[in-house]
Specification:
The protein has 178 residues and is an all-alpha fold. The chain has 10 helices and no strands.
């Protein structure tokens, strides 16, 4: 079993034990592979585990874009996967790369951090944005959710990822107005 397979199994187990959703992690890896077919193992591991802390701590940040909460979320996820990778005796360089990516997955920075951020956003738009828009509209929180959609869309770095996200972004905003 490859290290990536072991990480995926770890994430699946953690999510199922704590009633957390695995699909976002898997969709993030899917989008990484679409955006960068030659992605290194560290980037794929970071994609699979970037939100792992939610499996242990729940969604305590509840979609917040508060920089302090985002930083804590990234650090908690990095800590969880670092412990797992060390237990698996992964190469130190790979661990450091994966941790560095996870620590910056919310805003990006380097090329690979940007790809992880873009893939994370694409996974969100693909899976949740329209459903959450309908829920926000029904709950009288359209304006609040529109700000979140704008924030997520504006986080996307690459033109390719923006073009993929655009129809989902537009459909979500339309749902808020329905």
């Amino acid at each position: 079993m490859s290290l990536l397979d072991k990480v995926e199994q770890f994430v699946i187990n953690a999510c199922s034990e704590n009633h957390s959703d695995i699909s976002h992690h898997q969709k993030t890896v899917y989008w990484i592979k679409k955006l960068k077919p030659e992605a290194e193992e560290a980037l794929l591991i970071a994609g699979m585990s970037h939100d792992i802390e939610r499996a242990f701590n729940g969604d305590w940040k509840a979609g917040s874009s508060d920089p302090a909460k985002l930083k804590k979320h990234q650090e908690l996820s990095a800590d969880e996967i670092e412990k797992f990778l060390e237990k698996e005796q992964a190469p130190k360089e790979l661990i450091e790369k994966a941790i560095n990516l996870i620590l910056h997955h919310e805003e990006g920075g380097t090329e690979d951090q940007n790809i992880l951020c873009d893939a994370d956003c694409l996974a969100y738009f693909e899976e949740k944005s329209i459903k959450k828009a309908a829920k926000a509209r029904a709950g009288g929180k359209s304006e609040e959710y529109r700000k979140k959609l704008d924030y997520l869309f504006n986080r996307i770095h690459s033109l390719e990822a923006r073009q993929i996200a655009q129809p989902l972004y537009d459909a979500s905003k339309k749902e808020l107005r329905s």
